Amino acid sequence: MLWLMLIFTMRLCLKQLLSYHRWMFEQHGKMSNTTKVWVALVRIFSGRKPLLYSYQGSLPNLPVPAIKDTVKRYLESVRSLMDDTQFERMTKLATEFESSLGNRLQWYLKLKALWAANYVSDWWEEYVYLRGRSPIMVNSNYYGMAARAGNSIHSFFLYRRKLNKEELKPVSSATSQAQLLYIHNTVQHWQDSDYIVVYHKGRYFRLRVYQAGRLLSPREIEFQIQRILDDPTAPSKGEAKLGALTAGDRIPWAKARAKYFSSGVNKRSLDCIERAAFFVTLDDDEQGMMGDDPAASLDRYAKSLLHGKCYDRWFDKSFSVVYYKNGKNGINGEHSWADAPVVAHLWEYTLATDSFQLGYTAEGHCKGEVDSSLPQPQKLKWEIPAECEEQISQSLAVAQALADNVDFHVFSFREFGKGKIKKCRVSPDAFIQMALQLAYYRDQKRFCLTYEASMTRLFREGRTETVRSCSSESTAFVRALEGGESADVCRRLFRAASEKHQLLYRMAMTGAGIDRHLFCLYVVSKYLGVESPFLKEVLSEPWRLSTSQTPPQQLELFDIVNHPEYISCGGGFGPVADDGYGVSYCILGENMINFHISCKHSCPDTVRLMKAEILCCVRKVDKKTLPLEGGTALPRQNYFSTSQQSSRNCQKQYLADVRDQGKEPGGDEEFSSL
User: Fold this and answer.
1) DSSP characters over 565-612
2) Whole-angstrom Cα distance, residue 457 to residue 117?
3) What is the pLDDT, as a whole number, of residue 12?
4) Which residues of the chain have a pLDDT value below 50?
5) How far apart are CA 29 and CA 22, in angstroms?
6) Catalytic residue check, 335
7) Which of 154, 184, 200, 335 is catalytic?
8) pLDDT for 458-471, tens place per residue?
9) Which whole-number Å values give the CA distances from 509 to 192, 337, 462, in the listed order?
10) Where does the Choline/carnitine acyltransferase domain lie (predicted)?
C-alpha cells in the first residue's frame, strides 16, 4: 500500500508540474527562477530512463477556455479581414451568443471535459475526418518524400519493434505519444501483423516479413519483392483498379463494401489489406529530380505521391509506401488517426536507418543472406461482379477529376535559413508566415483567413489547434512594406507582427486557442438541436490559406551539415478551399527551407502563388526587416562590380531587387545612372 501510495503521489505531482506552461511565454534565453525550479522538479519526478508511454497518465487534460476569452480572441482575429459594417454585425452576433446560448453550450462542454481525457480529440477525429463523405485522397491525405525499398521495409518493422517495446525516446515528458498507438494497421487497432500487402501492376500480394518469428533481413525482403516484380500473373477481373474505391466519395465505397466485400473471398482479401502493417505500391513510373527540367519533375513526384493513378494506392491505410522504378520512394499518410509529425518521426527513423545503418553492397543490393525456403508471396483473390466494376469506374472518375484539378509546386529556398533568422532573434516560423502573408496579399490584393496547424500534445491525447496567422499586426506590416514605408517602420511593424504570431502559437499550444473550442461548442449545439447564427457563420468561413510546418524531430540520427544529400524534401497536402492554397514548409538545417504549394486549376485566381512569388516575398521581408548581427539595419544591395561579380550580374541583381519592390525596372540607362 505504501508503494502504491508513493507511485500515485509521484504521478499526481508530475501531473501538477506538467500543467505549468508559463515557461513557453518567457523570453528566449531568459529563464525565470520559477521555471528553473520547475525544470529541476520535473527531472526528479520523471525518473531516469522513462519508457515511451511513461508520462501519458501524468499529462494534464486539455482545459476548456472561458467563452468570453474565446469570443474576444475570435473578434480580434477577424478585425483586419472585415470592414466596419461587417465587423459591427459580427460583434453583435458574438455578443448575443456569449450572453445567451454560449453559456449553456459551455456548461455541457465542461461536463464532457470532466470525464473525457481530451474534450476535443474524439469529436475532431469523428466529425472532421471519419464522417466526411468527400474523397480523402487530396482532401485529407498527405505525402512525404525519400528513396529505396528492401532496407526501408525492414526499417519500418525495426521502428515498430522499438515502438512496441517502448524503446523509442519520448520527445519530452510533457508531450502526448498517444497517436503512435495507431501508426500501423488502421484506426481500428488490430493485433500486430507479421505481413504487408503489396500492389504491383493491378495485383495485390500478401508478403510475410517474419519467418518463424524472425524478421526477414533486408536482402530477403528485396528477394521477395523481386519475386512479385517477376510474377507474370494477370490481375483477376475487376482487381486492377479496385483501389479507386478508397479514392472516390465515401458513401459509394461504404455501400460497395457492405454489398460486395462482406463475405467470401472478397471479405478475406479485404481483411488481409486492412489488417496488414502497412500498404506498399511498386510503381512502374520513375520519379524524382531528373531530366532537363528537375523542378517540373519534382512537382510530378509530389503529385504522384499525393494521388498516384488514383487506383494504385490504398488510401484508407494509416500509411502507404510507394516505391518507384528508379528506386525513389515516398509515403502517403491517412489523416484521421494522427497528424503529420507522427508519420514524419517514423519516416526520419526509416531514412536514417536505411542510409547510415543498413547500407548496400557494391552491386547495389541490400545486405544479408537469403533463406531459399521462403514461401512465395501470396496473391490475393477477388471475385468482382460487373455491378461492382461499374462502381469502381465511377469512383475512379471522381478521383481522377480531383487529381487532375490539383496544381503542385515543390522547391527549396537555399539563400538563407533559420541560422540567419535566429541570429536576429526572430522566430523562423513567424518569419515564413509573414512572407506568406505578403505573398498572398501581392497575389490576391487582399488578406484572408489563414490556418496554421500547431500541436496540443502538451495535453493527454492532444491533436492540433489553429493559429490564425493573419492578424492586425501582420496586415499592418504587409501594408507598410507594400506602401514603401521606411526600413525602420517596416522593421518595427515586423517585430510586432512576429511577436504576436509567437504569442498566438504559444496560446494555441497551451490550450487557449480559438477554433477547437468553437468547433466543440458547435458539436454540442447540434446534439442539443439548437441553432447558433454566430457559430454557423464562424465554422463556414473558408481557410483560403492553409499552412503547416513539419519540423525535423530526430536531428541526432545523422549530420545534416555534412550529409545534406540525405535530407528529405518534406511533404505536402492539397488545398483546403477550392479558391485557396495549401502551403507546407520544412525548415531543414541552418540554410534551407523547403516549400510544397498546392492549389486548383479550376480557380483562375489561384495560379500565381507559386515559386516566384514566395521566393520574392521571402527575400523582400529579409531585406526590409532583418538587421545584421551587430544590430544595424541591412544596407541596400551593392550593385557595383567587384572582382567576383561581373557588371552584368550586378545589373541582374538590381533588376531582381526592383521587381521585389513591385516596380518596373528602367533598364540599362537607369542602372548606369545608379
Assistant:
1) GG----EEE--SSTTSEEEEEEEETTTEEEEEEEEETT-TTSSSTTHH
2) 12
3) 86
4) 147, 173, 628-655, 657-674
5) 14
6) yes
7) 335
8) 898 888 999 999 99
9) 32, 20, 9
10) 62-606
